[in-house]
Amino acid sequence: MIETLFSFVFATAILAISPGPDNIFVLTQSIVNGTKYGIATVLGLMSGCLVHTTLVAFGVSAIIKENDSLFFIIKLLGASYLLFLAYKVYKSDAKIVLSNSNIQKESVYQLFKKGFIMNVLNPKVALFFLAFFPQFLFSKTISNVIQFYTLGALFIAVSFLVFTIIAILAGSISSYLKENAKVGVYLKWGQIIVFTFIAIMILL
User: Could you tell me where the DSSP H helices lie in the chain?
Assistant: First the structure.
């Protein structure tokens, strides 16, 4: 149980650190508007994660309860999706591009709302949660719903911590990324390894 949760936290941290639309958005908003506004964006994104956690918790739990074969198919599709994500990262450019030239200043509430809507309405996030969470169920005695919410809470806590650090250190991080081109390569391969490892773990 502890080993499973530790693996989940580690994988979540790697994914949160790796360059993606969400953390790059937080970084640029923090640079343009300031730390407070970056954190408001983070809170919006994390609130959206709670919605996805709820959908996965009740949807997948019902499937597990009703049909083991159908749940196996979901796991197989989840593994395939994670391998597809690993392939997309592999084919992508390792360079981290930061652009804040067209970003308008917005209020704290506007950025919170934008982060929330960005997350909730993103079908890729829903697919990722569906592929990622079921593989880390850690107990045969605890309710699946409780397990999903536990994983959701850990995912939100770790992501919030990483994203908040990004918001606070926005200026320093952006300067470091611009000066050290190899960082993008390391983060790229870290993400590929995590996606592939989870997919293999599912298949085995």
Answer: 2-17, 21-33, 35-66, 68-91, 108-120, 123-132, 144-168, 170-179, 182-203
CA dihedral for 183, 126, 129, 13, sign (positive or negative): positive
Measure the CA–CA gap between 14 and 126, rounded to whole angstroms: 19
Hey, what amino acid is at 156?
I
CA distances for 59 relative to 46, 122, 145, 178, angstroms: 20, 18, 9, 42
Residue 124 CB contacts under 8 Å (≥ 6 apart), including other chains: none
Percent pLDDT > 90 in the chain is 25
Please tell me the distance from the alpha carbon of residue 166 to that of residue 3, in angstroms, as a whole number: 27
Give the CA radius of gyration of the chain.
17
Q: What is the pLDDT of residues 11-38, one digit of tens each?
A: 899 888 887 778 888 888 888 888 899 9
Q: What is the pLDDT of residues 93-102, one digit of tens each?
A: 767 666 655 5
User: How do residues 74-91 score in pLDDT, each as one tens digit?
Assistant: 778 888 888 888 888 888
pTM higher than the cut 0.70: yes
Find, among 118, 123, 50, 94, the residue nearest to 191 by Cα: 94
**Cα(141)–Cα(143) distance, integer angstroms:** 7
Distance of alpha carbon 170 from alpha carbon 35, whole angstroms:
8
At 95, the amino acid letter reads K
